[in-house]
């Protein structure tokens, strides 16, 4: 039976996150980082010390052996304070850690998981190419076998945090002539490997998460860089998709709740026509709809987390939670901007940052259209 009660231990952990974020990355620091386009990498060791990266990993690898319900709660709480904190957490645990756990070699796990758990390793996922966005199976970047390893050639684009990453998880075609999901392999590539070049891309939001276009020119990696089975890379990636969809959902919900709370406080204070604007029914109804959508998205995420934790199938629920949460985040920030009007439009407001950032969530990591396609397919259409 689904139980939404948050265990005492998890409540204490969430309180510790509140204290850590208030101390290490308060709202002023987030505003400043956004303005300066800086990534708060320094949060990683603090998260490590709180044990956040250890949550879903088995004790044999230095983890806490807890389940995905706790990961989702932590992700949402970090996002409430700063979307970028949740992004760094999600990338480390999901793209990095769960990929290693699910299909990394024992040597890769031994080498990286303990460091990852301490918050000492930075990951970036390099999947997208200019012709392969939503259609990820259209990738052409290749890796060819040599006597002792592989040589990677090609380009990747829009790769978040790539320049500062220690490792790039790179999807490459390893079977020449193969098409779609077949013949793709995943590689764990040291960022410093010769032949890798990067150019930064300018964009609308997510200033704390720089985006990079990457060139791989005869990049030589050892045989140990291969993650999982050669040619099965897509299958491997698909086996971790529900983790990243849950992560995106939690991140969007945490920020969406923050937007609602900001707007409630503003509506109580802002006076027009001699009354707080929150006393106008038009504003009340907008805010009621905002909170309603956040609560519904959160329920969808709680169900998904429970399914993941109990190892039940969750393709539809993962698509549903990601879709509901990310569209909710856009809905609440759009309405938040309307209610805050000029105060929201000012670069000093937190609402404008969240409104700009919300744009990405409905097309990154599987667009809303793709999630609807998946749900329809699960319904037999
Ligand atoms: C800020 C930012 C950060 C990113 N970070 C990363 C990263 O770290 N690593 C990484 O690998 N990639 C990253 N990406 C890339 C991101 O995953 C892609 O942008 C995303 O997959 C969409 O691809 P696209 O932009 O090429 O859009 P397209 O695939 O060209 O899609 C355009 C539109 O067509 C729709 N569409 C496409 N196919 C279908 C279909 N079959 N049915 C219905 N509608 C369809 C889409 O939903 C969308 O609305 C990032 C992108 C941005 C902007």
TrEMBL record:
Its cofactor is FAD. GO terms for molecular function: acyl-CoA dehydrogenase activity; flavin adenine dinucleotide binding. Residues 124-219 form the Acyl-CoA oxidase/dehydrogenase middle domain. Residues 8-120 form the Acyl-CoA dehydrogenase/oxidase N-terminal domain. It holds the Pfam family Acyl-CoA_dh_M. SUPFAM superfamilies: Acyl-CoA dehydrogenase C-terminal domain-like (SSF47203), Acyl-CoA dehydrogenase NM domain-like (SSF56645). The keyword Zinc does not apply. Residues 231-379 form the Acyl-CoA dehydrogenase/oxidase C-terminal domain. Belongs to the acyl-CoA dehydrogenase family. PANTHER family: ACYL-COA DEHYDROGENASE, ISOVALERYL-COA DEHYDROGENASE, MITOCHONDRIAL-RELATED. This is Acyl-CoA dehydrogenase family protein. It comes from Parapusillimonas granuli.
């Amino acid at each position: 039976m689904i139980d939404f009660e948050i265990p005492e231990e998890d409540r204490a952990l969430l309180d510790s996150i509140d204290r850590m974020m208030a101390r290490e990355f308060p709202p002023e620091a987030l505003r400043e980082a956004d303005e300066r386009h800086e990534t708060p990498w320094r949060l990683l060791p603090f998260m490590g010390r709180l044990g956040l990266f250890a949550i879903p990993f088995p004790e044999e690898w230095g983890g806490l052996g807890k389940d995905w319900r706790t990961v989702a709660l932590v992700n949402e709480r970090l996002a409430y304070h700063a979307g970028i904190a949740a992004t760094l957490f999600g990338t480390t645990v999901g793209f990095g850690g769960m990929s290693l756990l699910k299909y990394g070699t024992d040597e890769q796990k031994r080498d990286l998981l303990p460091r990852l758990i301490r918050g000492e390793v930075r990951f970036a996922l390099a999947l997208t190419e200019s012709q392969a966005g939503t259609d990820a199976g259209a990738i052409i970047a290749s890796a060819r076998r040599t006597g002792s390893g592989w040589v990677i050639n090609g380009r990747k684009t829009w790769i978040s945090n790539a320049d500062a990453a220690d490792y790039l998880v790179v999807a490459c075609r390893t079977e020449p002539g193969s098409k779609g999901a077949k013949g793709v392999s995943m590689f764990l590539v040291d960022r410093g490997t010769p032949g890798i070049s990067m150019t930064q891309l300018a964009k609308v939001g997510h200033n704390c998460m720089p985006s990079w276009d990457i060139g791989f020119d005869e990049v030589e990696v050892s045989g140990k860089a291969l993650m999982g089975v050669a040619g099965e890379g897509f299958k491997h990636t698909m086996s971790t998709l529900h983790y990243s969809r849950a992560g995106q959902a939690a991140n969007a919900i945490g920020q969406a709740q923050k937007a609602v709370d900001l707007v409630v406080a503003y509506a109580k204070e802002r006076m027009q026509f001699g009354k707080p604007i929150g006393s106008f029914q038009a504003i009340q109804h907008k805010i009621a709809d905002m909170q309603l959508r956040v609560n519904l998205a959160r329920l969808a995420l709680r169900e998904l987390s429970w399914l993941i934790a109990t190892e039940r199938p969750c393709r539809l629920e993962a698509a549903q939670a990601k879709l509901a949460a990310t569209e909710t985040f856009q809905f609440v920030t759009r309405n938040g901007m309307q209610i805050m009007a000029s105060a929201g439009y000012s670069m000093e407001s937190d609402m404008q940052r969240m409104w700009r950032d919300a744009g990405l969530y409905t097309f990154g990591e599987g667009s809303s259209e793709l999630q609807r396609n998946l749900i329809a397919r699960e319904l037999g259409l």
